[in-house]
Amino acid sequence: MEFSNPTRRSLLTWMTAVTLGTAATSAFAQEAALPKGPITLVVPFAAGGATDVVSRLVAQKLSERIGRTIVVENVAGGGGAIGAAKVAKAPADGSMLLMGTVATHAINPLSMRPSPYDPQKDFTPISLVATVPNVLLVNSSIKAKDVHELIALLKASPGKFNYGSSGVGTPPHLSGELFKSMAGVDIAHIPYKGGAPAMSDLVGGQIPLLFDVLTGAASHIKSGSVRALAVTTAQRSPSFPDVPTIAESGLPGYETYTWNAVFGPARLPKAMVDVLSRELQAVVALPDVQLKLKAISANPVGSAPEALTTLVKAENDKWGPIITSIGGLKRD
Questions:
Q1: What is the C-alpha to C-alpha distance for residues 58 and 55, in angstroms, rounded to an integer?
Q2: CA 22, 23, 28 angle in degrees (round to 5)?
Q3: Tell me, what's the pLDDT at 20?
Q4: Average pLDDT, integer, range 302-320
Q5: CATH, domain 35-132+258-325, list 2.40.10.270, 3.30.1510.10, 3.40.50.1000, 3.40.190.150
């Protein structure tokens, strides 16, 4: 059938109107699902750290996309527990979100008695933003060239060596404990009040081994002041493709990492979660965001809420036995 020109014009006009109407309806639905006013993104650590850097980058880009002011608020203390508890108790209206980590959603709840919140019941997962490898570093005095040789060295001299971390209960600390457990080695943990003093002692030779977050160790690896034997993730870091993983170089199945993910309080409306998750995934996919995350050795992800739910459960299942095996985490 052929249409006359007037009929064809009418059909095209109708189709255009339907398309515009659908787009307008979709935009209205998204607008209606978003929080009504400004959003506070709580960073449960001090300003200037890796989580703070990631949060401010994401907050700026998300604000531009959804047309809402997003204020980053640093609520440090308790290894991230104070800021996380604040969001857990916030109204479920999207006005307050959390940039959570493995510390807020696994390590702290498993080691604090009583825990100030339930990591799986008191939050609404929205999106996993990025993962950050931890890294096993050695002082130049250590002759082992790889993880296999290091394990042999440690087994030959039980109790002689120790390792440092940025503090009791931190992801690097537990990376070290998992390494001890899987490798069957006897090395003592030396906790520091942060990654910087621990790194200083590694460089100076006061400690022979250090587990650290790759973002903080990157400049020292590049300068050659320390040697990176392996990263703790299942895959190599794009920032240091020549550094193998612990799993591939001596301990198959070993995997730990730090991560940043956005959560809301429990019972956040599904429509709001869907919009925020979709927009966060779009933010993480932006080329400039990808470049900036990779520049600090973070691996961009951007996930659906369901994937984050699965991750939190898996992290609790993994770290529970490790924390129990070392008798809990006594913090100074």
A1: 5
A2: 95
A3: 54
A4: 95
A5: 3.40.190.150
